[in-house]
Amino acid sequence: MTAPAVATDIGIALDRDADDELADLRSEFDLPRQDDGAALHYLCGHSLGLMPVAARQAVIRELDRWSRLGAQAHLDAGGWFAFHERFAAPLAGLIGADAREVVAMNSLTVNLHLMLASFFRPTGERRRILIEHGAFPSDRYAVESQLAFHGLDPATELVRLAAESGRLTAESLDAALARDDGRVALVLLPGIQYLTGEAIDLAACAAVARRHGCRIGFDLAHAIGNLELNLRAAEPDFAVWCSYKYLNGGPGAIAGCFVNRRWIGDDSLPRLAGWWGHDPRTRFDGATGFSPMASAEAWQLSNPPILAMAPLEASLTLFADAGLERLRRKSVALTGYLEALVRSLCGDAVEILTPADPAARGAQLSLRLCREAAATARIAASMRAAGVVVDWRAPDVLRLAPVPLYNRFVDVHAGASALAAALEE
Ligand SMILES: Cc1ncc(COP(=O)(O)O)c(C=O)c1O
């Protein structure tokens, strides 16, 4: 392989940082530091996004309200009764949906189960679920257990989409559904595949699923806050995501859920219900039957965990200020720079699993090291000793994600240089 020419000189990175119109956003985050106080080069936002400085105050504000007001904080102006409502519009903006299609609630896998309870309705021969080969374990466990819950055998009724061309394309989905001949009831695909970093064409895949008579949902864990998404155009039945990666909502932060507006108010759709999905005007009045809210909020079960939600608001404010379009432009530049440096500095010692086309990836680059697992772990550790944080997925994949909200071109330079040095050790 011939590496394309790229200036590996640190001066290039410094110049690009100097020209970065979003550079000031970095100061809105607390940066993990090394023992000597220097900021780490944090390339791990695909795993856990950094803490917005304002998150601390947001949590303290709610703790103060609890301490001052007790239960009264639920009903106070701006209180907790309607706290979740403030998240719908900004989250909808990030995924290209209507606010009434979006709700912040629970955690990702819980939301996936709630969506599968509503949308996976096996009937007759049509009783299979299709997911991608190598899906995130929790997604696989969720769909396997849903199949078992319906008395179906996951060994035969779970179909795995092998990416035939090495890619998760609408064509490979089309071929798999055609092969399956009307037996798949529901398709669950990622917005971005967690291991390879490949972004799928949501609209094309949703169109294929619909054409084959299947319902389709997306796991947007690695896509929200990373790509410019347009669910209004893709029209999946549902989508779920977590908020602790590119959304910087904090560990175990409140997750999110999208329900397509065509299903809202449709009584034919069963749902696992709780009081927080009931019409708020009569929520405390057990005398009436369950009266669902006219939005995705109808899928809420419990009153929301305020302290796990507050940090997300701080982060969403930063997205609103910066604008996803500008963030994405910087993200494409950062990841393109990372790719060019890795090719130039590491050559054949690494295989880049992530597609080269910027439209088919987000911030993350996944690198397969042509080494055994122990050596891959050692390389990740050696990069950490050089002040670079990445993550490692067994047996041999390193994932690096420069995040446009807080990463600089010099972080990318440090990451690629530390990798090249570790490979030579
Ligand atoms: C693609 C994907 N799906 C599901 C999960 C599980 O998320 P949770 O523990 O929030 O349910 C993760 C967590 O990283 C993930 O990356």
List the helices and strands and how they pair.
Layout: H1 10-18, E1 29-30, E2 41-42, E3 51-52, H2 53-69, H3 85-95, E4 102-104, H4 108-119, E5 128-132, H5 137-149, H6 154-157, E6 158-161, H7 170-180, E7 184-190, H8 202-211, E8 215-219, H9 231-234, E9 238-241, E10 256-259, H10 306-322, H11 324-346, E11 350-352, E12 365-369, H12 373-385, E13 388-389, E14 391-393, E15 397-400, H13 409-424
Parallel strand pairs: 2-13, 5-6, 5-7, 7-8, 8-9
Antiparallel strand pairs: 1-3, 4-10, 9-10, 11-12, 12-15, 14-15
Helix pairs in contact: 1-13, 2-10, 3-10, 4-5, 7-8, 11-13, 12-13
The chain binds pyridoxal-5'-phosphate (PLP).
Q: Report the major sheet.
A: 7 strands, mixed
Q: SSE string, helix = H, strand = E?
A: HEEEHHEHEHHEHEHEHEEHHEEHEEEH
Shape: globular
Percentage of residues in DSSP E strands: 5-15%
**If helices are DSSP runs of H or I spanning 4 or more residues, what is the number of helices?**
13
User: What is the count of β-strands?
Assistant: 15
What are the low-pLDDT stretches, counting only 5+ consecutive residues below 50? none
Ends: how far apart?
22 Å
Strand order of the largest sheet: 4-10-9-8-7-5-6
Short characterization:
The chain has 425 residues and is of the alpha/beta class.
Could you walk me through the main structural features you see in this protein, from its secondary elements to its overall organization?
The mean pLDDT is 94. A seven-stranded mixed beta sheet has the order 4-10-9-8-7-5-6, sandwiched between helices. By secondary structure, it is α/β, with parallel strands linked by helices. It is globular. A hairpin with a 3-residue loop joins strand 14 and strand 15. Pyridoxal-5'-phosphate binds next to helix 4 and helix 5.
